Amino acid sequence: MYHDVIVIGAGPAGMSAALRARRPKTFDYLPSDVLVLEEGEPGGISSWKETYFTSPGWTYRRDELRNMLLSEMESFCIPMRNERVESAELSGRIKRIRTDKGEYEALAVVIATGMRNGANEWQYFGKGLYATLRSIDVINSTYAEICSRHEKIIFVGSERMELALSIWKDACDKEPTVFVENEGDRVMEIFGEGNVEGIKVLRNGRVEEIKGDAVIVDFESYMLRPTTQIFDLETEDGFIKVDRLGRTNLPGVFGAGDISGPPFSVAKAVGEGVTAGIEAYRYAYRVKFGREAPAFAFYPMEGKDGLIVPEIPEPEDDWVIGALDRNLCERYPFLRDGVEYREFLKHFTREDYERMLRSYSISVRPPL
Q1: Sheet (strand 362-365) strand order
Q2: Distance between CA 25 and CA 249 in Å, rounded?
């Protein structure tokens, strides 16, 4: 199944990238066909508790930022599939992404997987699930409180958990169960009726249950060594190496958010997502039409007579028109996977085509 841009990950960076790749703020714009792939719950760490965007004076309540982005994605008809990416071929002109449920093709890919694969932890935050995202003094006092309230404690982190475990030994004499996540072993879900009762993990290819009434996710360890890097890209300390425009070492592949390394901030994630989304759109446009995208609001171009806006290419008979609007798909199912422009004109007029472009309800591309 083809898409102009595929975004892997639906945290603040991934959803921001998808929105900008779908519809940059500009005029005379050709919409792009965007798909988001997310293994766990959308929202990432921003769904766990209140989020400081820049400071305590600019704070989003728990789930508020996530719900705002999800609402925007729905308004622009951006599909999101709950699938786990298992492999990716990113070096060719056509990028191929394989998941546990299917295979997809795209011209551009944005990787926004965060520093770890999330499951359903956010549902249990404050109900027996804790996270180390604070100063050492606060972590120390938090550990003492956890120790007094719980009997069977599970630590989850990357291979760099030594600091968290050493602090734990100073604060509590209870021996925790330690689960180390890597590219193959991971937490699949937290379970429990109301409060944490344990975790389901994938270890050595088998699903196991680990019982416990408290789970501590050591994000400090993921900041030192992320666990989501399954892509054959240039890295630095385990994080995908990108330039200021989110470009990786492979053309058409971009990175944004925590997977691109520190500093770790939701504001940085959103900003990098916006940048990567615009750049993915521009890259896909250049591949499709062999010219610069009309992203005038972000990239004004100057000619001899002043600023110019690139012209939208005129569709030829064999160009593919696809529906991006859910209502359009339901009303005209043949548009779901795309049809040639000549076939499109058997059902619609040229005026319909232009109107659908302006309303961002269809995409267009030459045959690949």
Answers
A1: 339-340, 320-323, 362-365
A2: 27
Work out whether the CA dihedral 96, 106, 39, 241 comes out positive or negative. positive
d(CA 7, CA 109): 6
Burial of 303 (0-12, 13-18, 19+ CB in 10 A): exposed
Q: What domains does the chain contain, in order, with CATH numbers?
A: 2-115+228-289 (3.50.50.60), 121-224 (3.50.50.60), 314-365 (no CATH)
pLDDT at position 323, please? 94
Q: How many CA atoms, within 13 angstroms, populate the side-chain half-sphere of residue 322?
A: 19
Residue 158 phi, psi (nearest 5)? -85, -175
Contact yes or no for 147/42 (Cβ under 8 A): no
Q: How far apart are CA 191 and CA 176, in angstroms?
A: 18
Q: What share of the chain is helix, strand, coil (3-state, %, to 5)?
A: 30, 25, 45
Mean pLDDT of 64-92: 92
Token reading at 148:
């007094």
Measured in degrees and rounded to the nearest 5, phi and psi for residue 320 equal -100, 130
Residue 121 has phi, psi (to 5 degrees) of: -55, -35
- Report the SS3 class of residue 47: helix
Q: Do 145 and 206 meet the contact criterion of CB atoms below 8 Å apart?
A: no
Average pLDDT value for residue range 65-81: 91
Q: Considering only CA atoms, which of 75, 84, 72 is closest in space to residue 8?
A: 84
Which helix (H) or strand (E) covers residue 307, if one does? strand 306-308
Q: Among candidates 238, 215, 214, 220, which has minimal Cα distance to 163? A: 220
Instruction: Answer whether 0.85 is exceeded by the pTM.
Output: yes
DSSP class of 241: P
* CA 262 to chain centroid: 17
CA 284 to the chain's CA centroid: 18
pLDDT in tens, 248-283: 999 999 999 999 999 888 889 999 999 999 999 999
Q: Is the N-terminal amide bond of 263 cis, ω within 30° of 0?
A: yes
Residue 158 carries which side chain, given as an amino acid letter?
A: S
Q: What is the largest CA-CA distance in the chain?
A: 76
Query: Any idea how long the chain is?
Result: 368
- The separation between the first and the last C-alpha atoms of the chain, rounded to the nearest angstrom, is 13
